[in-house]
Amino acid sequence: MAPKNSKTVIIDYGSGNLRSAAKAFEHASVEDVSVTNDPAALQDASHIVLPGVGAYADCKAGLGSVPGMIEALAEQVIDQKKPFLGICVGMQLMATLGREHGETDGFNWIEGEVVEIEPADATLKIPHMGWNALEFEAGTHPVLQGFEPGAHAYFVHSYHFAAANDDQVLASVDYGGPVTAMVGRDNMIGTQFHPEKSQQFGLAFIENFLKWNGEPL
Amino acid sequence: MLKTRIIPCLDVDKGRVVKGVNFVDLIDAGDPVEQAKVYDAAGADELTFLDITASHEDRDTIFEVVAETAEHCFMPVTVGGGVRTVDDIRKLLLAGADKVSINSAAIKNPEFVQEAALKFGSQCIVVAIDAKRKSDQFEIFTHGGRQETGIEAIGWAERMADYGAGEILLTSMDKDGTKSGFDIELTRAIADAVPIPVIASGGVGTLDHMVEGVTEGHASAVLAASIFHFGTYSIQETKAYMQAAGVPVRLE
Q1: d(CA B118, nearest CA chain A) in Å
Q2: At what angle do helices B61-72 and A19-28 cross, to 10 degrees?
């Protein structure tokens, strides 16, 4: 269980279903989990989660339509250095640029572009959908503690994060070549996979995130 | 690498499981949420609810089932049956479904699939295709295989993929309920024709059938109801068998 005094805020900006994400965090946390579209709520948060399903441009527009939200995120994550988790398109928004349905600026927190997955094997299906085995170096990040490389997580996406710096790719999967599964630096991480849909692994991952104080190892 | 998904399907009528698993330790074997928990704990890769509730006034029962399942199960859940409008989709997603499966509504109005994919994203739009052999081709049927549409199945699948479907749930109406295996020719023809994943369904009676759906039918996932419902095979047995037969599955 995550420590007391954690106050998780899941940002609601009209992107898909947040109920299951909220349930997974409630399951892993003894403390407060709130789903909100109020930028002010980020001030009291100990941990911030940005989910996202659908298309990049739509998600960015949805987030932009909540007055003050993008600014509040930057303040709390960049200035206040609160532990941040982006999930799926929420992770992709951390990039410099998204190339799904035209070009859309991301937050530019982690340098890179979100590009179409192009498996070397043309028979591989897009979207990349289902359970894939994570490849990562054990012991490199607090949130991955307790997991062995090869642990499975649930993915569903057609675009992925092509990061400019390899050391900011914390995990990848093989799908006709490497596909980015997790990025991060400092107090922020992002997962292409859905921890809230990844059964035992996912719940343990969320618990790790909620225990994390935002410091690297 | 990506693993082949094993997907149990639960038929739900007015909020109750039809043909449920005979797990003796379940307090209420007709409760879909209890069944979902069993499959979740067993490591099912996804779960599908097929809502077969006929009467309109009882249709809201599925929302409660989905919402309750989302409280306890942290796995992807698809809901099919009676998905006809954007509002139906929105309500199911808000209740906690991850994907919805569209069948008759796509045949009535193919552009509905386009609209749904644009609004909610391809990742949550599954198009269900019920196909049957007719002379030298496969045709789409509705109403449990009783009503023909005259639509050729492979071209239809390609069109649905073009319209933004993220996945196809393919059921052979010739094979459904026969326990004689998937229609491999149909499965492979569609799986090879579309760029999106295809879930094979209809006809599973043995674990070899599950393997064949992938190795010969080229399906990305296999869905079965009765072999799991009646306890013929467990999810774990199925996965262990498939792995041994060379189909990579998630075992942990």
Answers
A1: 9
A2: 30
